């Protein structure tokens, strides 16, 4: 097992396969997009598999594939096919986070590969607001992906970033989805990783989101949160699905963090609010053995900060804004 200095077992990896995205969400990046990484700077399939295999031998049990948008990467499915061979050999679960635009044709294959859960980014059910937020007219595609995932028996968590003066009117319509659909709708505090597009407002923090839902659904009941959960989980009597609220900026869940992040260019982050501590791609390309990489991984994890506040305080550049969430692995 990988254990940090706070006694936490680290068994969950978020692996970014690309920094590219086919949306331009206002809370993530400027309208013109980003300066995408050249292909040579991205990890290859073989490098990602080697890192995954090594971390699994060290105790990682769950891998979430993120981006950017994972399905923008053309060799994603072959990579997932090889990664899925590690299921049952230390690896217990592979999950994906996607915006749903390119996902639908691959759902049958995802099912065959043993992927049982997908996080779907969806910030509104209103077509015009979707265009305003993502700068793309693609809501029907996302809703079609949602329907097909559920028909395939793949569990879906809907991720919604709550933004003042933007989509707070969508909170209750999204909650209403849980009545007829077995989905988990998770409302996320806006974070500062927006490419510097605007200053965030925390007037809609996790407690206000919960209060707003409870005004319409007074029987909103707190559920038992799983260990290491990032969300505060709730259920409404008679609803098939449930609701989660993630204090992503308030960072009230950080103390039980069991996660590592690896960016598309191989950078290891032990905390979302920290900075890169090690580049695994560079180690591999320099000819490092698995033993050398393992030793450096263990050293990096041992210095994992207690929470996001400590990580932010320890950043040498003392800058909280990042170019984009796409650059740090979703």
From TrEMBL:
Coiled coil regions in record: none
Cross-referenced Pfam families: Mob_synth_C (PF06463), Radical_SAM (PF04055)
GO biological process, any: Mo-molybdopterin cofactor biosynthetic process
UniProt KW GTP-binding keyword: yes
All copies of domain Radical SAM core, residue ranges: 5-219
Keyword entries, A-Z: 4Fe-4S, GTP-binding, Iron, Iron-sulfur, Lyase, Metal-binding, Molybdenum cofactor biosynthesis, Nucleotide-binding, S-adenosyl-L-methionine
Protein known as: GTP 3',8-cyclase
Organism expressing this protein natively: Arachidicoccus ginsenosidivorans
Organism phylogeny: Bacteria, Pseudomonadati, Bacteroidota, Chitinophagia, Chitinophagales
């Amino acid at each position: 097992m990988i254990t940090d200095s706070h006694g936490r077992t680290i068994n969950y990896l978020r692996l970014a396969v690309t920094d590219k995205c086919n949306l331009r969400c206002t809370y993530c990046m400027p309208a013109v997009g980003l300066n995408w990484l050249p292909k040579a700077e991205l990890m290859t399939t073989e490098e990602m598999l080697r890192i995954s295999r090594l971390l699994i031998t060290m105790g990682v049990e769950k891998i979430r594939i993120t981006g950017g948008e994972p399905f923008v990467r053309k060799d994603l499915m072959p990579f997932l096919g090889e990664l899925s061979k590690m299921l049952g050999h230390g690896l217990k679960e592979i999950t994906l986070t996607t915006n749903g635009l390119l996902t639908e044709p691959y759902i049958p294959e995802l099912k065959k590969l043993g992927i049982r859960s997908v996080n779907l980014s969806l910030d509104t059910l209103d077509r015009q607001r979707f265009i305003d937020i993502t700068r793309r007219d693609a809501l029907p595609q996302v809703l079609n992906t949602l329907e097909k995932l559920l028909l395939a028996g793949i569990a879906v968590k809907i991720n919604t970033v709550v933004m003042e003066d933007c989509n707070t009117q969508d909170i209750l319509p999204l909650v209403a989805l849980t009545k007829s659909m077995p989905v988990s709708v998770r409302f996320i505090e806006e974070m500062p990783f927006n490419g510097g597009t605007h200053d965030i407002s925390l007037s809609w923090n996790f407690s206000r989101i919960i209060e707003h839902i409870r005004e319409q659904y007074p029987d909103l009941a707190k559920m038992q949160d799983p260990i290491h959960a990032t969300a505060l989980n709730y259920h409404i009597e008679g609803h098939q699905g449930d609701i989660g609220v993630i204090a992503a900026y308030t960072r009230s869940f950080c103390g039980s963090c069991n996660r590592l992040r690896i960016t598309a260019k191989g950078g290891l982050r032990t905390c979302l609010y920290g900075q890169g501590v090690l580049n695994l791609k560079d180690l591999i390309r320099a000819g490092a053995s698995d033993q050398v990489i393992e030793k450096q991984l263990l050293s990096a994890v041992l210095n994992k900060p207690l929470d996001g506040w400590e990580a932010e305080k320890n950043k040498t550049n003392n800058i909280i804004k990042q170019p984009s969430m796409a650059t740090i692995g979703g």
